[in-house]
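User: Hi! Is it possible to get a structure for several chains at once, not just one? Here's what I have:
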Amino acid sequence: MHAVNIHSDSPIGSTALDYVGNTPLFKIERFEEIPAGVELYAKAEWFNIGGSVKDRAALRIIDDALRDGRLNSSKTLIDSTSGNTGIAYALICAVKGIPCEMVMPENVSEERKRIIAAHGAKVTYTDPFEGSDGAIRYVRELAAQHPEKYFYANQYNNPSNWKAHYDTTGPEIYRQTHGRITHFVAGLGTSGTMMGVGRRLRNYNPDIELVGVQPDEPFNGLEGLKHMASAILPGIYDESLLSRNLGISTEAGYETARDLARREGLFAGQSGGAALHGALDVVAELEEGVVVVLLPDGGSRYLSTNLWPLPAASPLANEHHAPVE
Ligand SMILES: Cc1ncc(COP(=O)(O)O)c(C=O)c1O
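Assistant: Yes, the chains can be modeled jointly so their relative placement is included. Here is the combined structure:
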Protein backbone atom coordinates (compact mmCIF):
# COMPACT_ATOMS: atom_id res chain seq x y z
CA MET A 1 0.00 0.00 0.00
CA HIS A 2 1.62 3.27 -1.10
CA ALA A 3 -0.56 5.77 0.70
CA VAL A 4 0.00 9.47 0.21
CA ASN A 5 -0.19 11.78 3.18
CA ILE A 6 -3.43 13.73 2.82
CA HIS A 7 -1.67 16.90 3.87
CA SER A 8 0.93 16.72 1.12
CA ASP A 9 0.39 17.83 -2.45
CA SER A 10 -0.79 14.92 -4.54
CA PRO A 11 1.97 13.90 -6.94
CA ILE A 12 1.13 13.74 -10.66
CA GLY A 13 -0.10 10.26 -11.47
CA SER A 14 -1.57 9.44 -8.07
CA THR A 15 -4.81 7.44 -8.19
CA ALA A 16 -7.80 7.04 -5.86
CA LEU A 17 -6.12 4.09 -4.15
CA ASP A 18 -3.11 6.20 -3.11
CA TYR A 19 -5.49 7.94 -0.70
CA VAL A 20 -6.16 4.99 1.56
CA GLY A 21 -4.53 5.43 4.97
CA ASN A 22 -2.54 8.24 6.56
CA THR A 23 -5.63 9.80 8.11
CA PRO A 24 -5.43 12.69 10.59
CA LEU A 25 -5.50 12.44 14.39
CA PHE A 26 -7.50 15.28 16.02
CA LYS A 27 -7.23 16.43 19.61
CA ILE A 28 -10.60 16.31 21.44
CA GLU A 29 -10.71 19.13 23.98
CA ARG A 30 -14.27 20.34 24.50
CA PHE A 31 -15.75 17.55 26.65
CA GLU A 32 -15.84 18.16 30.40
CA GLU A 33 -15.21 14.44 31.11
CA ILE A 34 -11.53 14.84 30.09
CA PRO A 35 -9.36 15.36 33.21
CA ALA A 36 -6.52 17.91 33.05
CA GLY A 37 -3.77 15.27 32.91
CA VAL A 38 -5.36 13.25 30.10
CA GLU A 39 -5.10 13.74 26.34
CA LEU A 40 -7.83 12.37 24.05
CA TYR A 41 -7.32 12.03 20.29
CA ALA A 42 -9.65 10.88 17.51
CA LYS A 43 -8.46 9.10 14.36
CA ALA A 44 -10.76 10.39 11.61
CA GLU A 45 -11.17 7.53 9.17
CA TRP A 46 -13.60 9.30 6.84
CA PHE A 47 -10.51 10.94 5.32
CA ASN A 48 -9.90 7.69 3.42
CA ILE A 49 -10.90 8.02 -0.26
CA GLY A 50 -13.99 5.78 0.12
CA GLY A 51 -15.06 7.60 3.29
CA SER A 52 -14.42 4.94 5.94
CA VAL A 53 -11.93 2.77 7.80
CA LYS A 54 -13.02 -0.16 5.64
CA ASP A 55 -10.99 1.07 2.64
CA ARG A 56 -7.92 -0.23 4.42
CA ALA A 57 -9.27 -3.76 4.97
CA ALA A 58 -10.89 -4.05 1.52
CA LEU A 59 -7.72 -2.95 -0.28
CA ARG A 60 -5.61 -5.47 1.60
CA ILE A 61 -8.17 -8.29 1.11
CA ILE A 62 -8.24 -7.65 -2.65
CA ASP A 63 -4.47 -7.17 -3.07
CA ASP A 64 -3.63 -10.33 -1.10
CA ALA A 65 -6.15 -12.39 -3.13
CA LEU A 66 -4.87 -11.01 -6.46
CA ARG A 67 -1.30 -11.76 -5.40
CA ASP A 68 -1.91 -15.43 -4.59
CA GLY A 69 -4.40 -16.10 -7.42
CA ARG A 70 -7.65 -16.54 -5.41
CA LEU A 71 -8.98 -13.53 -7.35
CA ASN A 72 -8.62 -12.41 -10.95
CA SER A 73 -10.69 -10.23 -13.28
CA SER A 74 -12.72 -13.19 -14.56
CA LYS A 75 -14.11 -13.80 -11.05
CA THR A 76 -16.73 -11.76 -9.20
CA LEU A 77 -15.87 -10.50 -5.74
CA ILE A 78 -18.80 -11.14 -3.40
CA ASP A 79 -19.28 -10.37 0.30
CA SER A 80 -21.85 -9.37 2.88
CA THR A 81 -21.48 -5.88 4.27
CA SER A 82 -23.25 -3.34 6.44
CA GLY A 83 -22.32 -0.82 3.76
CA ASN A 84 -18.91 0.71 4.32
CA THR A 85 -16.96 -2.36 3.24
CA GLY A 86 -19.26 -2.58 0.24
CA ILE A 87 -18.40 0.96 -0.79
CA ALA A 88 -14.70 0.18 -0.36
CA TYR A 89 -14.91 -3.06 -2.40
CA ALA A 90 -16.98 -1.37 -5.13
CA LEU A 91 -14.58 1.56 -5.43
CA ILE A 92 -11.44 -0.62 -5.47
CA CYS A 93 -12.98 -3.17 -7.88
CA ALA A 94 -13.92 -0.29 -10.21
CA VAL A 95 -10.30 0.90 -10.28
CA LYS A 96 -8.92 -2.63 -10.75
CA GLY A 97 -11.54 -3.83 -13.28
CA ILE A 98 -13.00 -6.61 -11.10
CA PRO A 99 -16.78 -7.42 -11.12
CA CYS A 100 -18.30 -6.85 -7.67
CA GLU A 101 -21.52 -8.07 -5.97
CA MET A 102 -22.57 -6.82 -2.51
CA VAL A 103 -25.16 -8.43 -0.22
CA MET A 104 -26.62 -6.37 2.63
CA PRO A 105 -29.67 -6.13 4.88
CA GLU A 106 -32.32 -4.05 3.13
CA ASN A 107 -32.42 -1.46 5.95
CA VAL A 108 -28.83 -0.15 5.61
CA SER A 109 -28.74 3.57 4.97
CA GLU A 110 -29.79 4.72 1.54
CA GLU A 111 -26.57 6.68 0.98
CA ARG A 112 -24.58 3.45 1.10
CA LYS A 113 -26.79 1.61 -1.36
CA ARG A 114 -26.57 4.50 -3.84
CA ILE A 115 -22.80 4.90 -3.56
CA ILE A 116 -22.17 1.17 -4.08
CA ALA A 117 -24.36 1.25 -7.19
CA ALA A 118 -22.57 4.42 -8.36
CA HIS A 119 -19.28 2.49 -8.50
CA GLY A 120 -20.94 -0.12 -10.73
CA ALA A 121 -21.38 -2.98 -8.25
CA LYS A 122 -24.44 -5.24 -8.12
CA VAL A 123 -26.47 -4.95 -4.89
CA THR A 124 -28.56 -7.79 -3.39
CA TYR A 125 -30.75 -7.23 -0.32
CA THR A 126 -31.52 -9.67 2.48
CA ASP A 127 -34.25 -9.61 5.15
CA PRO A 128 -33.64 -6.64 7.51
CA PHE A 129 -34.95 -8.65 10.48
CA GLU A 130 -32.12 -11.17 10.00
CA GLY A 131 -29.55 -8.32 10.27
CA SER A 132 -25.98 -8.73 9.06
CA ASP A 133 -26.05 -12.43 9.96
CA GLY A 134 -28.78 -13.03 7.37
CA ALA A 135 -26.57 -11.46 4.69
CA ILE A 136 -23.62 -13.60 5.82
CA ARG A 137 -25.65 -16.84 5.56
CA TYR A 138 -26.92 -15.94 2.07
CA VAL A 139 -23.43 -15.18 0.68
CA ARG A 140 -21.94 -18.33 2.21
CA GLU A 141 -24.49 -20.48 0.41
CA LEU A 142 -24.23 -18.68 -2.92
CA ALA A 143 -20.42 -18.72 -2.95
CA ALA A 144 -20.35 -22.41 -1.98
CA GLN A 145 -22.74 -23.24 -4.86
CA HIS A 146 -20.64 -21.36 -7.47
CA PRO A 147 -16.97 -21.51 -6.45
CA GLU A 148 -15.81 -21.02 -10.06
CA LYS A 149 -17.74 -17.76 -10.39
CA TYR A 150 -17.14 -16.07 -7.04
CA PHE A 151 -14.25 -14.96 -4.88
CA TYR A 152 -15.85 -14.84 -1.41
CA ALA A 153 -13.90 -12.04 0.27
CA ASN A 154 -15.29 -13.05 3.68
CA GLN A 155 -14.24 -10.01 5.72
CA TYR A 156 -15.31 -11.65 9.01
CA ASN A 157 -12.87 -14.54 8.63
CA ASN A 158 -10.16 -13.17 6.35
CA PRO A 159 -6.84 -12.43 8.12
CA SER A 160 -6.03 -9.81 5.46
CA ASN A 161 -8.68 -7.68 7.22
CA TRP A 162 -6.82 -7.30 10.52
CA LYS A 163 -3.39 -7.33 8.82
CA ALA A 164 -4.32 -4.11 7.00
CA HIS A 165 -4.62 -2.42 10.41
CA TYR A 166 -1.52 -4.16 11.76
CA ASP A 167 0.51 -2.71 8.88
CA THR A 168 -1.10 0.75 8.50
CA THR A 169 -3.53 2.03 11.18
CA GLY A 170 -1.49 0.74 14.14
CA PRO A 171 1.87 2.25 13.07
CA GLU A 172 0.16 5.53 12.10
CA ILE A 173 -1.39 5.90 15.58
CA TYR A 174 1.87 5.05 17.33
CA ARG A 175 3.78 7.56 15.16
CA GLN A 176 1.13 10.29 15.49
CA THR A 177 1.19 10.06 19.31
CA HIS A 178 5.02 9.88 19.31
CA GLY A 179 4.73 6.51 21.02
CA ARG A 180 2.88 8.02 24.00
CA ILE A 181 -0.46 6.23 23.53
CA THR A 182 -1.68 4.41 26.67
CA HIS A 183 -5.23 3.36 25.63
CA PHE A 184 -6.84 2.49 22.29
CA VAL A 185 -10.65 2.48 21.98
CA ALA A 186 -12.56 1.17 18.94
CA GLY A 187 -15.94 -0.30 18.05
CA LEU A 188 -16.15 -3.98 17.11
CA GLY A 189 -17.76 -5.01 13.83
CA THR A 190 -15.69 -7.65 12.08
CA SER A 191 -13.18 -6.69 14.81
CA GLY A 192 -10.49 -6.24 12.14
CA THR A 193 -9.65 -2.72 13.31
CA MET A 194 -9.19 -3.73 16.95
CA MET A 195 -7.39 -7.01 16.23
CA GLY A 196 -4.88 -5.39 13.86
CA VAL A 197 -4.30 -2.10 15.67
CA GLY A 198 -4.35 -3.86 19.05
CA ARG A 199 -1.74 -6.47 18.12
CA ARG A 200 0.55 -3.84 16.60
CA LEU A 201 0.30 -1.47 19.56
CA ARG A 202 0.98 -4.33 22.00
CA ASN A 203 4.09 -5.21 19.98
CA TYR A 204 5.31 -1.67 20.51
CA ASN A 205 4.27 -1.56 24.17
CA PRO A 206 2.60 -4.52 25.97
CA ASP A 207 1.09 -2.17 28.59
CA ILE A 208 -1.23 -0.37 26.15
CA GLU A 209 -4.86 -0.99 27.10
CA LEU A 210 -7.30 -2.08 24.39
CA VAL A 211 -10.95 -1.19 24.92
CA GLY A 212 -13.61 -2.70 22.65
CA VAL A 213 -16.99 -1.02 22.19
CA GLN A 214 -20.16 -2.96 21.34
CA PRO A 215 -23.88 -2.22 21.22
CA ASP A 216 -25.47 -3.04 24.59
CA GLU A 217 -28.30 -5.03 22.98
CA PRO A 218 -28.76 -7.33 19.96
CA PHE A 219 -31.26 -5.12 18.09
CA ASN A 220 -29.69 -1.66 17.88
CA GLY A 221 -29.05 1.31 15.62
CA LEU A 222 -25.24 1.28 15.80
CA GLU A 223 -24.72 0.34 12.15
CA GLY A 224 -21.36 -1.36 11.64
CA LEU A 225 -21.01 -2.67 15.22
CA LYS A 226 -21.85 -6.18 16.46
CA HIS A 227 -23.37 -7.37 19.73
CA MET A 228 -20.89 -10.25 19.99
CA ALA A 229 -22.82 -12.32 22.56
CA SER A 230 -25.78 -12.76 20.20
CA ALA A 231 -24.09 -12.57 16.77
CA ILE A 232 -22.21 -15.06 14.59
CA LEU A 233 -18.71 -14.56 16.05
CA PRO A 234 -16.21 -13.30 13.46
CA GLY A 235 -13.45 -15.88 12.96
CA ILE A 236 -10.80 -13.15 13.29
CA TYR A 237 -12.14 -12.00 16.70
CA ASP A 238 -10.00 -12.89 19.72
CA GLU A 239 -11.67 -11.50 22.82
CA SER A 240 -8.65 -12.35 24.98
CA LEU A 241 -6.68 -9.52 23.33
CA LEU A 242 -8.97 -6.92 24.93
CA SER A 243 -8.40 -5.29 28.30
CA ARG A 244 -12.09 -4.29 28.50
CA ASN A 245 -15.33 -4.52 26.56
CA LEU A 246 -17.90 -1.72 26.94
CA GLY A 247 -21.59 -1.95 25.98
CA ILE A 248 -22.98 1.37 24.67
CA SER A 249 -26.63 2.20 23.93
CA THR A 250 -27.79 3.40 20.53
CA GLU A 251 -29.00 6.67 22.03
CA ALA A 252 -25.64 7.32 23.73
CA GLY A 253 -23.86 6.71 20.40
CA TYR A 254 -26.19 9.12 18.59
CA GLU A 255 -25.96 11.81 21.27
CA THR A 256 -22.17 11.66 21.43
CA ALA A 257 -21.88 11.92 17.62
CA ARG A 258 -24.11 15.03 17.82
CA ASP A 259 -22.00 16.51 20.67
CA LEU A 260 -18.84 15.87 18.66
CA ALA A 261 -20.20 17.76 15.65
CA ARG A 262 -21.41 20.67 17.80
CA ARG A 263 -18.33 20.97 20.01
CA GLU A 264 -15.35 19.95 17.91
CA GLY A 265 -16.53 20.46 14.31
CA LEU A 266 -16.01 16.75 13.61
CA PHE A 267 -18.91 15.15 11.70
CA ALA A 268 -18.72 11.41 12.47
CA GLY A 269 -21.18 8.53 12.22
CA GLN A 270 -22.94 6.84 15.14
CA SER A 271 -20.46 3.99 15.57
CA GLY A 272 -17.80 6.68 16.07
CA GLY A 273 -20.18 8.38 18.51
CA ALA A 274 -20.46 5.10 20.45
CA ALA A 275 -16.66 4.62 20.42
CA LEU A 276 -16.17 8.19 21.66
CA HIS A 277 -18.75 7.61 24.40
CA GLY A 278 -16.70 4.58 25.50
CA ALA A 279 -13.48 6.63 25.33
CA LEU A 280 -15.03 9.34 27.52
CA ASP A 281 -15.94 6.66 30.09
CA VAL A 282 -12.31 5.51 30.01
CA VAL A 283 -10.73 8.99 30.31
CA ALA A 284 -13.05 9.95 33.17
CA GLU A 285 -11.39 7.23 35.30
CA LEU A 286 -7.80 8.34 34.55
CA GLU A 287 -5.49 10.90 36.13
CA GLU A 288 -3.08 10.82 33.22
CA GLY A 289 -2.85 9.07 29.88
CA VAL A 290 -2.98 9.41 26.10
CA VAL A 291 -6.17 7.87 24.76
CA VAL A 292 -6.89 7.33 21.06
CA VAL A 293 -10.38 6.57 19.76
CA LEU A 294 -11.04 5.53 16.17
CA LEU A 295 -13.98 7.12 14.33
CA PRO A 296 -14.84 4.70 11.46
CA ASP A 297 -16.81 6.98 9.13
CA GLY A 298 -18.35 10.41 8.63
CA GLY A 299 -21.79 11.72 9.53
CA SER A 300 -22.79 12.43 5.95
CA ARG A 301 -23.28 8.67 5.40
CA TYR A 302 -26.36 8.96 7.67
CA LEU A 303 -28.14 12.07 6.44
CA SER A 304 -31.27 10.06 5.63
CA THR A 305 -31.46 8.59 9.16
CA ASN A 306 -32.60 9.93 12.54
CA LEU A 307 -29.01 10.61 13.56
CA TRP A 308 -29.27 14.10 12.11
CA PRO A 309 -32.83 15.42 12.55
CA LEU A 310 -34.07 18.13 10.23
CA PRO A 311 -34.35 21.48 12.02
CA ALA A 312 -37.97 22.15 12.99
CA ALA A 313 -40.06 23.98 10.40
CA SER A 314 -40.29 27.74 10.93
CA PRO A 315 -42.17 30.45 9.01
CA LEU A 316 -40.23 31.51 5.94
CA ALA A 317 -37.90 34.30 7.01
CA ASN A 318 -38.97 36.58 4.18
CA GLU A 319 -42.73 35.91 4.57
CA HIS A 320 -43.55 39.26 6.18
CA HIS A 321 -41.52 41.44 3.90
CA ALA A 322 -43.23 43.20 1.08
CA PRO A 323 -41.68 42.36 -2.29
CA VAL A 324 -39.31 45.07 -3.51
CA GLU A 325 -40.86 46.89 -6.45
C1 LIG B 1 -19.60 2.34 10.51
C2 LIG B 1 -18.70 1.25 10.99
N1 LIG B 1 -18.23 1.29 12.23
C3 LIG B 1 -17.45 0.34 12.73
C4 LIG B 1 -17.09 -0.76 12.00
C5 LIG B 1 -16.26 -1.82 12.66
O1 LIG B 1 -14.95 -2.00 12.14
P1 LIG B 1 -14.33 -3.44 12.14
O2 LIG B 1 -15.08 -4.26 11.13
O3 LIG B 1 -12.91 -3.23 11.73
O4 LIG B 1 -14.47 -4.01 13.50
C6 LIG B 1 -17.55 -0.87 10.71
C7 LIG B 1 -17.24 -2.05 9.91
O5 LIG B 1 -17.92 -2.43 9.01
C8 LIG B 1 -18.37 0.17 10.18
O6 LIG B 1 -18.86 0.10 8.93
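The radius of gyration is 20 Å. The helical segments are 54-67, 84-96, 110-118, 131-145, 159-176, 192-204, 250-264, 270-284.

User: Great, thank you!
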